[in-house]
Structure formats: C-alpha cells, structure tokens
Amino acid sequence: MAKKGTAGPTTAATTALTRAGLSYVAHTYAHDPRATDFGAEAGRELGVDSARIFKTLMVETDAGFGIGIVSVGDLLDLKALAGALGAKRAAMADQQVAERKSGYVVGGISPIGQRTPLPTVLDDSAERFETVFVSGGRRGFDLELSPADLLTATRGTVALIRRT
Question: DSSP readout, 68-112?
C-alpha cells in the first residue's frame, strides 16, 4: 500500500489520517468548475474504475444526522442507511447544513476529519477492493486508502446501503 501522507494539500482529512497513523495516497487533479458530477469527474481524471470512487452523503434521520458512503455509480438506499443508523427514516441533508456540519464544500466533502463527527456507514461493496477513493476535503483532491483504514478514521460501520 501507499506511503503515509504523500504529496497533496493539507486538509482536515489528511491531518486526521496522519494523526491516526493511517496510510493513504493523495491524488490531485484539475477540477473543472463546470462539473457537477464530482465522482464521475474524479474517476475520469484519475483513470480509476468508478466502482472504487466513493461519495460522502449526509442524511438527516429521526435519530439525528449521519453519513453514508457509497460508490459514485450507486444510489443510496435511504431506508437501508436509516436502519443502519438505528433510525426509522432518513432524508438527504440540506446542502448548507452538510457544508456547515462537515466543514467542507459540496463536491469536496470528505468522510474524514469532519467538523462535527457523525455516525458513518460504509457500503459493503467497498470490501471488494484493496483500496477505495474518497474526497480529500477539496474538489479535485481524493484520498486512496483501504476500507479498513477508512472505517478506523471515521469510526464507521459496514452495511448494504446502496440500492440493489
């Protein structure tokens, strides 16, 4: 696996990973400001199968806020995520709320190093890969790390939370 803290910008995510002693590889690419499908852009620019690129989605449940991490090619199953978070129902969080709670901008929301740590669930499809990619805390910046290290960094759990 990769060296710890390889070249890239310093963000709350990279700081959290370094402090925890977790290995990752930083990947930067030129973000197109017209792009709105940030995950697809990352896969294209990095030359990585989109199944390995994971998006961070914040939800609001009847039990509070939470994070779901699913492959960019998949849709989040809100009912499954609610259940994994111990709630009855979930809805996508408002974009401004997600930015405020995470400390990141949409398109660059990392599941790691968020301003307000939230219960986090990683889709079980991540376990098929040695490493996965998540946002590093900026548009045009992704972190590659093992699913196990991602779970350690987020204190997350694994469940089937994608629509099948």
Answer: EEEETTS-B-HHHHHHHTT-S-EEEPPHHHHHHHHSS-TTS--SS
Residues 71, 51 contacting (CB under 8 angstroms): yes
CB 21 within 8 A of CB 5: no
| pLDDT tens readout for residues 64-97 | 999 999 999 999 999 999 999 999 999 999 999 9
Residue 160: both structure tokens together: 């089937």
Question: Phi, psi at residue 18, to the nearest 5°?
Answer: -65, -45
Tokens of 72: 């960019």
Cα separation, 51 vs 39, whole angstroms: 10
CA distances from 161 to 67, 74, 129, 145 (A): 11, 10, 17, 20
Q: Indicate the SS3 state at residue 66.
A: strand
